[in-house]
Amino acid sequence: MTVNERKSRRVHPRSEKGSETDKSAARRVWIMRGLVTPILGMLAVTCIVLGILNATVWKPSRSIAASTRIEGTQYIATDPGVLPLVDQQVELTVESSGSDDVCVALGSGKDVNGWVAGESYVRVTGLHDWSTLSTETFTSKSSSDASSDSSDDQSGAVAFRDSDMWSKVECGKGSAKLSTETENASTMAIIDLGAKSDATVTLHWVRDVLPDFAMPFYFAGGLLVIMAILTASLFAMPPHKRRKRIVESVVHEEVSVAEALSGSLSAFKPSGKPKRKRSRHAAHRPGAATESVATTSSDVPSAAVPDDTTGSHDVSMAFPSLSDPSQPTIIDPSARNLVADQVAANAADHDDHTDHVNDHTADAQPSAVAGDTSAEQPSGNDEATSVITPDELQAYFARLAQETSDDDGEEAHQ
Amino acid sequence: MTKTIKTIAAATLTLAVTLPLTACEGRIPTPSGSDASTTAATATPDLTETQEAAIRKAILDAYNNAGDAKKTDGLDARVTGPAYDIYASRIRISQTGSLDPLATIPGDIAQTVIPTDSGWPRSIFSITTTTEDQQSKRLLVMIQNSARENYKLWAMVRLFSGVQMPSFAVPKIGSQMGDAKDNGLVATPEEAVKEYADVLANGAKSQYASKVADDQLRQKLTETTQQVQTGIEANKGTQQQTFTPVDGAIHVMRSTDGGDLVVAQINHEWVRQAGEGRESLPASDDERVLFGDTKATSSLKATYTIVVAIYVPSKDSGKQITAVGADRQVVKVEAVK
């Protein structure tokens, strides 16, 4: 069977399947453009709408006010880090149900703890939710002892508002308000209600930096838009159109890898050197190649490969029959023993190889490196297949691979 | 048709799930500094420089008001310990004349040493500038006995001219307060004060004379004792001096060079007996004012309060215990039988 015959055989089924292929392609296009794209588009629109809503109507409010009702205590203290919880700028308001003077002061943690030492007090520990403060009651174990102690050392004691320890104090009748910009996270606020009573504590922050919930939606929306465009265009394309390109590039790459390898190898060798090397090898082991090739006709090619470099005159002596054109030539590529051919070719090919290496370094080297599978056939049957050059043969194999996969692909789709 | 309905239902469901999630304020923040142990572990200064200035101003206002009024009313709210004794005495003496310029405390400071200790009592050491009349700098020791009390001036020490003060950490870092029983020094602060008192009493004959460097207070006392001795010898009288460190009246600040700056109170009792049946009379103007109209006897006891600032170097420094400043004032003069 010639190459042309095979080609015509393969073209035939394809034309048979043409209508089926078109059908599947049309269906694919419909799925992609009619179903997937609108869904993605809808999601994209939803995301963008949600983004816009988050940037406008649902935008987190700048002003956060959280409060809590505290009962039956004289002292209330915020934990370190509570004051600058939402923003550095904070306003603390206390409204007491009692009629005593209410004072709010800022102090360091150790000063506040020192002041309330031995007393039970309420700690404001943080935010329970965005409008409620969380609290915790701290009961001093020695509060009863401390009350007697404190009455003892009342002599030097100062009023809450007069203490040196506070960096800022605000007092008022029944309520007090203190605004501050806390720089130190350990700064605490302490509230003195004057006597045990109930109070409402409110912390009010104005946020400088708002959380941006819109951007993730915009981003997702953007991605969905891109995906929608892709599904409508690239993914809606019949697969063979895309695959053809891929196969072609693969074929090209296969060649180019071999080319690159051999090319780079040959680049290291000056053109004059190989000849000298070969002759030296031949001088060293004149019978080595002959022996190995002659005794093991079924030897693996790798064993014979080094012999490529031996002198051509040795090989021609060992296999005079192969180089003899008087033998009948059978042209049937499918019924050939490739291994035997290869061994024969290795021996017979030396003249060709030498020529290849010397004359067509770029073209012939890859075949030598790749195991001589493709280059031997033409070289072994020079006359019969003289119409096909190694390059043409390679191109043919590439086409074959492409068409086979094409057929497979089509079958798979059907 | 059903497909459309399904699609709409799915979309509605999706929106219903998504919408409540979107309209929120963000994640609720938790206090980062809520770990009280970490904030306590990192030693932070007890006060800012601004607070120190405010405290010093409050103290000096009370101090100067009392001085101007020549009355000690309300002085105890801001002045305590030996500083109160000395200043009260000076105010009393000033009632017959003018206030001793030695009592002056400049309003500006050259340096302040702020403690990092969490507990009480706490003490701030501040060094003022020189006075307007070019007197030496003052070292102020302001103490806070408990959290419910305010800072009070505990000692005012006039630094000796030309002394080399130990170095302390800057106020933003803060220094560690020392203890009367600090180790690793040539002597514990408490012992150092005792040794210094012994040197004051015995001069060069003290067993600690070699450990304690000479200073202006020692020179002044020796000089005064000599003068009094001359008079007493003429009267065939005698004199005895005792220097007693006051228990617990000691404040210590650790310097960065390994030593401690110790400010302590030493009571000085000076008993003078006149011979040959004569009366023992006050030896100075200050003593005379305090003695007043008391009937003189053959024996007179003058009680002086001495506040001394001593630098106790580290054991391996090879330096001597050195007094860097002092203040001394007669607080009581009485006739004894």
Characterization of this structure:
The complex is a heterodimer of chains A (414) and B (337). Chain A has helices spanning 3-55, 109-116, 143-152, 214-232, 239-268, 273-284, 288-295, 301-304, 312-318, 338-348, 350-359, 361-369, 373-380, 390-413; strands spanning 63-78, 89-96, 101-108, 121-129, 132-138, 168-173, 175-181, 187-206. Chain A is an alpha+beta fold. Chain A folds into 3 domains: 3-59 and 213-237; 63-206, Sandwich (Jelly Rolls); 241-413, no CATH class. In chain A, strands 1, 2, 3, 4, 5, 6, 7 and 8 form an 8-stranded mixed beta sheet that branches. In chain A, a hairpin with a 2-residue loop joins strand 4 and strand 5 (132-138). Chain B is an alpha+beta fold and 337 residues long. Chain B has one domain. Chain B is built from 7 helices and 8 strands, in the order ααααββββααββαββ. Chain B has helices spanning 2-22, 36-41, 49-69, 81-94, 189-202, 216-235, 285-291, and strands at residues 109-113, 122-128, 138-144, 152-159, 238-254, 260-273, 299-312, 322-336. Chain B has an 8-stranded antiparallel beta sheet with strand order 1-2-3-4-8-7-6-5. In chain B, strand 3 (138-144) and strand 4 (152-159) form a beta hairpin. Chain B is elongated. The A-B interface holds A 42, 46, 50, 53-54, 58, 60-61, 64, 79-82, 85-86, 108-111, 114-115, 117, 125-127, 129-130, 150, 153, 156-158, 162-165, 167, 185-186, 210-211, 213 and B 11, 14-15, 18, 22-34, 36, 39-40, 44, 46-48, 50-51, 54-55, 58, 118-120, 144-151. Chain B: It comes from Bifidobacterium ramosum. Chain B: Keywords: Signal.
Task: Name the features.
heterodimer, A: 414 residues, Jelly Rolls, disordered N terminus, B: 337 residues, alpha+beta, eight-stranded antiparallel β-sheet, elongated
Question: How does the overall form of chain B come out from the CA principal axes?
Answer: elongated
Enumerate how many helices of chain A there are, as a single number. Answer: 14
Gyration radius of chain B, rounded: 30 Å
What does the overall shape of chain A look like?
elongated
Strand content of chain A: 15-25%
- The number of distinct β-strands of chain B equals 8
Fraction of helical residues of chain A: 40-55%
Low-confidence stretches of chain A: 1-12, 143-152, 272-323, 353-383
Number of domains as seen in the coordinates of chain B: 1
Tell me the number of structural domains of chain A.
3
Distance between the termini of chain A: 30 Å
Give the uncertain stretches of chain B in residue-range form.
34-40
- Strands across the major sheet of chain B, in which order? 1-2-3-4-8-7-6-5
> Average pLDDT of chain B, to the nearest integer?
88
Number of strands of chain A: 8
Largest sheet of chain A: 8 strands, mixed
Helix content of chain B: 25-40%
Structural class by helix and strand composition of chain A: alpha+beta
SSE string of chain A: HEEEHEEHEEEHHHHHHHHHHH
